[in-house]
Structure formats: C-alpha cells, structure tokens
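seq:
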Amino acid sequence: MSHITSSRLALPVFARWKPLLFLAVVVIGLWVVKWQPYYLKTFLAADTHSIGKSLLANPSEHPLQAAWDYAQVYFLAVWKAAVLGVILGSLVQVLIPRNWLLRTLGQPRFSGTLFGTLLSLPGMMCTCCAAPVAAGLRKSSASVGGTLAFWLGNPILNPATLVFMGFVLGWQFAAIRLVAGLLMVLGIARLVQKMTPDAQVSNVVPLRPKTDNTPFLRRWFRALWTLFWNTIPLYILAVLLLGAARVWLFPHADGLVSNTLFWVVAMAITGCLFVIPTAAEIPIVQTMMLAGMGMAPALALLMTLPAVSVPSLLMLHGALPARSLWLTGALVALSGMLVGGVSLLLL
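struct:
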C-alpha cells in the first residue's frame, strides 16, 4: 500500500517538469530570436522611419540568379526562427500533456479559436516559421480552428510588426491592420473549422499513443525528424521557385500599381503567393508606395503578404486537410480584397 501511495505522489512531480521545460525553451528561444531583436529594432523604426531595404529590390533578370539571390537574403533573415519553429513544433508533441491541448486548443467551439489567437501573440513568427509549430499542435490534437488561429495570428497580429508599421507607414495603417487582422484571424479560423467535414477534422493521427513508454529523447528525435522531413524540403524548394518568380510578381515601375480595383485584386492574390520574413511587408509596401502604388492596393498587400504563402501552405499539407488549406488561402485573399476595396470607397 505504501509503495502504491508513493508512486501516485511521485507521478505529478515527474510529469510537471515536461511543460516547465517546454516553457523554458519557449521563453529563452523567443527572447533570443524575437523579443530582444525586435525591441532594439523599434528604436531604429522610430528614429529613421524605416526598418531596412525592401527584400524585393533590384531583382536579377535571370530567374536562376533571382532565385539564388532571394534565397540567400531570405534564409539569412529567418533561419534562427525557422530552427526554433521546428524545435517547438516537435517539443510540443512530447512535453505538453495531450489533455491540456484538448481542453484549450482542442475545442472545436469559438473558445478554441480564441485561445489559439491569444497564444499566437507572443510568438511574432512569420507564416513559414509558425507552420512547424502549428503542425506540431495539430499532431497533438489541436482543433482545425485553434491551429489556424495560432498560425494566422503569428504574422498578422504580431505586436512588433504593428509598432514598426506605425513608425514607418503611419499609425492609420497599423490601426487598420490590427482591426482587420483580428477579424481575419478569428473569422477565417472559425469559418474553416465549420466548413471542414467531420471526417477530416480528426484526420491527424497523433505521433504518440496515449500510453507510450518510449524514452523521452527517442520520442523527441522521432517527432523532430518527422516534422523536419514533412515541412523543410518543400519549404526550401518553394522559396527558390518564388524567388525566381519575384520579377513578375512585384512590379516596381513608377505609377504602374495605381489606386484601382484591378490592382487591389492583383496585390491581394500576389500577397498570398509570396513568402517573406517577419515585418518584411513594411519596407516592401513603403518602396512600392514611393514608386506610385495607391493606398488601396497597399492595404490589400499588407493584409495578405504576411498571412499565408505557397511555402507555408505546403508545410501544413500533412497536418491539415487540403480543403482547409485551400479555403484558408482563398479567404485570406478575399479579406485583402475587401480591405482594399473598402479603402477605395472611404479613403
């Protein structure tokens, strides 16, 4: 009897170190990769009204050279966050109790979507770096709505990006992005949750069964390798292809992107295709507006460019149903068109 009692008392102590370890990795990782660099970058944005050169500036006319040049600049900017994303996406599967996620992010009701949105705010990751974490949450039985809210909320509702945007583009842009972005994240995640067939809502088999006595390190390496193999190769390939296509996707000729409905639609769709690091939409839009782009297409691009991209959608192909991913991309594009269209009428 005493042996059984001591075992029961020891179990919670043993289990408690896992979420504490996960929290420590999250805090240390985000501090090094996101929080401290963005804190320092805020002063740069306030003093110079700029956070750097447009990532799309001076593209090569040759597709292969354009792909290589863009990939170098892009991966140099995101590699730390990408590594952190894969680590967190694997650790969440082995360190966070599954019943915790089922009670929070696992809820198919609005509460799961809301919790995913709130959980995304400290992450401040771009759509591709947040994708491995979203995939890990889904593997641990997070709901479709909760997963999408976390994934979309990271780039769209990034507090640092909103501050940079206010200093660089103007606080009216930041206010529109915040209000429209919150409606986008909650609305799209909730709508996709409702429109995903019941047979596909639970189509992801958790990496680990409920009772898995495999040693922790072996389970973690297995989760890490599976997540890496399912996300990173497609990610790299898609970035190279989009780097080659950037010459045609983003025209920079003076006055070409005028303040018309055609360009609102074009920029909203283009923004859903391309991939950028965190907050890179700000110098891109700043450069294009200086070249003559109207405010309406600028707002459409600000809403869609950070939200989704072809690489990030491909990275989630094994975690979410294809129908949900296609629907998410279409709704993001539609949201950008609506924001730009409203600005044509009111501004």
